[in-house]
Amino acid sequence: CRIWIPNFSLIAKPLYEATKGAERAPLLWSKEEEASFQSLKQALLQAPSLGLPDLEKPFQLFVDTKRNVAVGVLTQMMGTWHRPVAYLSKQLDNVAKGWPACLKAVAGTAILTQEANKLTFGQQLHIYTPHYYLSLKQQ
Predict the structure, then answer these.
(1) What is the rounded CA–CA span in Å between residue 77 and residue 91?
(2) Can you tell me the distance from the alpha carbon of 93 to that of 99, in angstroms, rounded to the nearest whole number?
(3) Can you give the residue ranges of every domain in the chain?
(4) Are 67 and 13 in contact (CB under 8 A)?
(5) What is the C-alpha to C-alpha distance for residues 84 and 129, in angstroms, rounded to an integer?
(6) Phi then psi dihedrals of residue 125, to 5 deg
(7) What DSSP string runs through the chain?
(8) Gene3D superfamilies per the record (predicted)?
(9) 3-class secondary structure per residue, 16-46
(10) Which fold has domain 59-128?
């Protein structure tokens, strides 16, 4: 269901953190985890309809990186507007998390391009990212 929820990894981040490295330890469920869980449930109920990918048309991937998570939307043109095909989000690896904002943007773009290729099957892909200045401004 993660491709149906915009910013899935950002919303689910507290849940991932709570379960990381806890093989047999009891799960600690705080207000933050509860809020994350409720937000995911609500997002799933309000999930937008996505278009089926048309492998005859080029794809567009809009990427941003915030709070160490790469988020993006894969679209295709339908008339004059971009129709979402999938919402993508992945946490940056531990090495990339320590990089400056400009390199995090590059890492996020690379990660989401790999994820998008699973849906585009190597078809033409146009990638759009915010200007580096915007990444610095948001810090």
Answers:
(1) 27
(2) 10
(3) 2-46, 59-128
(4) yes
(5) 16
(6) -135, 120
(7) -GGGSTTHHHHHHHHHHHHTT-SSSPPP--HHHHHHHHHHHHHHHTPPP-PPP-TTS-EEEEEEEETTEEEEEEEEEETTEEEEEEEEEEEPPHHHHTS-HHHHHHHHHHHHHHHHHHHHTT--EEEE---HHHHHHT-
(8) 3.10.20.370, 3.30.70.270
(9) HHHHCCCCCCCCCCCHHHHHHHHHHHHHHHC
(10) Ubiquitin-like (UB roll) (3.10.20)
- Burial of residue 111 (CB within 10 Å: 0-12, 13-18, 19+) is buried
Structure tokens of 98?
């320590």
The pTM assigned to this predicted structure is: 0.72
